[in-house]
Amino acid sequence: MTFPKSAPRPLAVALSPLMVAASLTGQAQVAGLEEVIVTAQKRVESSQDTPLSITALTANSLEQRGITNTGNLIGELPGVNGFNAPGSRGATSLSMRGFGGGNPANLSLDPAVGVYLDGVYIGKLAGSGMDVAELERVEVLRGPQGTLYGRNSTAGAVNFISKKPIGEFAFRVKGTIGDYDERGLKANLDLPAIGEVGEGAGRLSAAFGYQNRERDPLYDSRSGLEGYDSLDREAYRLSLMWELNDSFTADYTYDYSDLDEASQLNQVTGFNPLDAGGNVSRVAALQGLLQQAQGWAAIPGTDPRIGERWIPSLQETIADYQELSAAGEARRKSGASDFNPRAVNEVDGHALTLSWEAGELGFLGDVSFKSITAYRELETFVFGDLEDIDSSLNANGVGAYSDLVHLTLGQLYAPSSGFAYPFVDGLWNGIDSLGAFHSKQDTTSQYEQFSQEVHMVGTTDRLEYVLGLYYFEDEAEYERNAIFAAPLNGAGTQAYNTTTDAMAIFGQTTWRPAGFEERLALTVGLRYTEETKDIDYNYSEVVGPFGVTPARSVYREENFYNLSGNFTVAYNFTDDLNGFLRYATGYRSGGFNGEIFDNAFDEETIEQWEIGIKSDWWDRRLRVNGSLYTYTYEDLQTSQIKTDGGAATSQITNAGEAERWGGELEVQVAPIEDLVVGVTYSYVTGDFEKFPELCGTGESPVCVDTTDAAKRSAPGNQFSVSADYVLARTELGNVRGYVQANWQDEWNESALWTAVVNGQPVIYDHIGMDERTIVNARLSLEDVKAGPGNLTFTLWGKNLTDDDHPTFGINLGGLGPITQVYGEPRTYGLDVTYEY
After folding, report:
1. Which domains are delineated in the chain?
2. Closest listed residue to residue 627, CA positions, set 650, 661, 586, 672
């Protein structure tokens, strides 16, 4: 195995025959391990010959693992983790090597892991978790990819590559049924090509893919609503490939995805204390307040609403808080809420790729050119509670009010010993008009992007190089009508528009000096980026029970500049053993916090050193790949959820500095005929070297150092083992089993949870995501002859041990509740596939 010189050639010609045989899970028929072909460095090469930490999953691997979107990658691969946004759907934040992108529902935030679909950069995390109709493979690159992938790939990059037309009639249909009334349909159709390559107008090939998935809610609603965590999503894709001749190809794709689903259940698992010292529980405070209210109600002439509405509401709130606190941290079968939780996403995109094999161009060598032009749109709507407390009011105006409403009523009644006056009336009027619930999301987003990349790939006797230009622009519109602790914080609209214009020039070259039998390869790359971002804040007035906060608006603009690069030394010790030493930098855009008025943050940068090996042994029946790395982040962007202003908002802050190190190991072995076993392990350690102080309020605010309290938001250890085995070959068909177990240790869901309580800074305990072991399995009867095609029957199960694990949590600070979202319970089903 060597790092070969790769003469450019049309990808369709190079990949079509190779990818069929390249699937990791499709190797159980042979004793040796096949190589996977990738285009991670914008040229066709084996993943084993690419001096990067890369994991490639082909179509069969994706099928066995059930991967259709970015969210399915979480916990599946070494060093890859993340979460789906609480209260949202189709919005995924991926992390690699201990660092991720933050809140994926925040449109003013850029990703740290760059996600690409057929070479097109997906600009925002929102909508990044949508299904893709038909995938050829997925390439996962760990570590900064600032040279070839540019801005916002400081942690890594993920390439989703969809299937191209094959130019002849073929189709594949898969139907799915499962528990929770799951049903799905996936269909792909290739049509016969029109014309011939190199004759007249050339050859035109077309393919169409469609996918639909539906499932009833996993959790019932005790409030009589729809329930929580359902599936209802659809995706389709049109692909056209025009081959004028052997050197020119034009590929056009249109993809569309939508979902309309009940959002996750945000379980309340506890409550923050009321005071800064952590000595006064909310339940105890409410119980004391109940005694006071009962005393006031006994006084003749006091406000009758105390006895008619407030006391029974206090009793309901206390009962709910006690029940939820006693239930603690465990996946429940049902939840409650004021509003029907809903997430609606719609994404569509166009991409045109022009490829020209120019051939020999003198000193430039064998050269090819490629142009990728793309336009994408996204619309989202998110609605519902961020906790599972039903505070809806009955006909008498009684309900489980937020504890902050109760405490405010107590403060208002205390001076008058329970007698009504205008301030009291104002709060009751607010309760009647807005309610007394804890939280309500109500957010709409619109986003569109345009990108253009042109690059040139060349090969000479001793050089391989890439030169390119890149342009990107986007525009986002965001409107948030969220209400927290109604009616105290009032009702208003947070709206902003933001745009980005970015340009880059990049180049990378690999040189193989003479005298080393072409075993030594030196690679250097640079990318220069200029970027302009602006934001137009337009916050409406906020009308509350005690007055009106005036409307606010302001326009801001900022320019960013960056030079990123990499240097790699790769050496082939033998044909089957090579190693590499890589230095790489990356850059993540600065910008503005849209959910916090007039609040900016700086860009972040990363420097990483990495040493790795890639090797095949035992006649290529054993493959061992591994790497060790260390990196330093400067001005690291950290996502936190803040409630200092009485409303929960997502905020990006520059944390200062983080130094971490870790490693990954991937092993595959084919010990006997028809069996492939895989083992992976990843490790990362380190938190923060610097983190911003937390300060209270007042004339002489107290500030505390938070560096030791801030923690990395990723597990330190991840381990996976899988086995793919053809159990029997019969005249009817082949019986095949696949099982995979993914384990990871506990991790912290956020760098830090803080609040300012009565003017004092408070650091809350981390919620903590438990360690987990997820076991998935499939048992298939394959290659059953049915007319001109083949049938496959597959029984599948996910989370077979019904592991009870949280996937994310939110500490709502001064608002009170601590919530967690839990992973899916055990599910099972049947797939039936027909291929021709």
Report:
1. 11-265+336-388+437-835 (2.40.170.20)
2. 661
